Amino acid sequence: MRLSAVLVLLLVASACSPKPEQTWELTAQGIYTGAISADAKLALVGSLNHGASLWRITDYERLYDWNHKADVPVELVAAAFSADGRRAITTDPRTLVMWNTQTGESLQYWGTPGAVLDAALVPGGNDVFLGMEDHSAILFDAADGSHQLTLLHEGQVSTVDVSEDGKTAATGSDDNRSIVWSLATGDKRSEIDHGNPVRKVALSADASLLFTAVSNDRVAIWRTDSGTLEHVLHRRNPGVTSARFSADGSLLLLGTVNRQVELWQVASGERLKRWTVKAENPWHPTGSAILDVAFTGRGNEFRALAGDGRLADLRS
Fold first, then answer.
1. In angstroms, what CA-CA distances link 58 with 35, 208, 283, 311?
2. Is 192 exposed, middle or buried (CB count within 10 Å of its CB: 0-12, 13-18, 19+)?
C-alpha cells in the first residue's frame, strides 16, 4: 500500500474517534501498572525505571515516590486505591505494601504466599483481595497478615474486583470461568464458564452486575444473582485492559490495549462514546494500553491512564 493511502486511512480512523481534551505526562519511561482513585483525584503509577509514585491529578503534582526496598525501584504487578482514596496498595510478585496517601508513609509490609497477579482493596478495613498465580484468590488482612479466605480456581486468577460494600468479590481465571463470591462466607453466588480465559472482571457498586472480557471472545455484562447474560458489548474482545462502572451503575468505562477508551450505557448496552488516547510517539505506539479509567463525578468528564505514562482528560 502506498504511503499516501496509509495516511488517508489514518486520517479517516482519527476522524471516527474524538481526541482527548488534554494529556499529561506522569513518567517518560512508561509504566508496568497504574491506578486512578475512585474520585479521579489521585493516580498511582509504577514506572519502568523509577519505581512507584503517587500523583495529585488536580494540579499534576507528584506527591510521593514509593518503593518496597530503599533505593531499589519496585516492579509493580498491581496497584489499587481504597474507596475513599486514603490508602493505596502496591504489589510486586512477592511483596505487598499498604500506604497512607495523605502522609506518604507505609502502613504495612508483607511477603505474599505466592505470585500476585491482581489486587483490590476491600472497603471499610485493611483487607486486600489478591488474585494469585497458584490458582487461588486470597482475602488477606494487611493489618496482621492473616488469611481470611482462600477461594479456588483451576487456573491462575489474573483479574479480581470487590464491590463497594465489601461483601462481594469477583474473580476471572485461565480456567475459563468467572465467579462471583460472598466474602462473608466464601460461597459462590454465580459462576460462568466462558470457554476461554477471562482477562478482566469488574463489579457494579451494588454488586448486581458483573462485567467480563474474555480472550478471543465476547465482552459482556451479566446479572450476578443468576449468571444470566444482560448485554454483549463486543462479540470479540478488542483487548480490554481496564473497566469501571459509574457509582450509580448506569455507565461503564472500558480501556483497551490499542489506546481506546469507550463509554457505554449499561441499561441499553449502547456505546455512547469512543476516544483514542494519543501515543507520545505515534509511529511507535507500544506501551499504550489503557491501564485504568475513572469517572470524575462531573457528568461529561472522564480520565484514563495509559501504559506510556500519560494521563488523559476526556470529555463526552
1. 15, 32, 30, 12
2. buried
**Cell 481526541 identifies what position?**
19
User: Which pairing describes strands 147-152 and 157-162: parallel, antiparallel, or unpaired?
Assistant: unpaired
Classify each residue of 269-300 as buried b or exposed e, where b means 16 or more C-beta atoms within 10 Å of its C-beta. Answer: eeeebebbbbbbeeeebebbbbbbbbbbeeee
What pTM, to 2 d.p., does this model score? 0.90
For residue 144, give the DSSP letter. Answer: T
Q: Identify each DSSP E strand in 12-123 by its residue range.
A: 22-25, 31-36, 42-47, 51-56, 61-66, 78-81, 87-91, 95-100, 106-111, 116-121
CA atoms within 13 A on the CB side of 65: 12
DSSP, collapsed to helix, strand or coil, labels residue 94 as coil
In this structure, the number of other CB atoms found within 10 A of the CB of residue 106 comes to 14
pLDDT, tens digit only, all 316 positions of the chain: 433 333 333 333 333 455 566 888 888 778 889 999 999 999 999 987 778 999 999 899 999 999 888 777 778 899 999 999 999 999 998 899 999 999 999 999 999 888 999 999 999 878 999 999 999 999 989 888 888 999 999 999 999 999 999 999 999 999 999 999 999 999 999 999 999 999 999 999 999 999 999 999 999 999 999 999 999 999 999 999 999 999 999 999 999 999 999 999 999 999 999 999 887 665 554 558 999 999 998 889 999 999 989 999 999 8
Whether 191 and 177 have beta carbons less than 8 Å apart is answered as yes
Q: How far is the C-alpha of 90 from the C-alpha of 117, rounded, in Å?
A: 12
Torsion angle of C-alpha atoms 119, 291, 260, 266, degrees rounded to 10:
30
Cβ pair 130, 112 in contact under 8 A: yes
Domain locations in the chain as residue ranges: 20-315
- The domain 20-315: what is its CATH number? 2.130.10.10
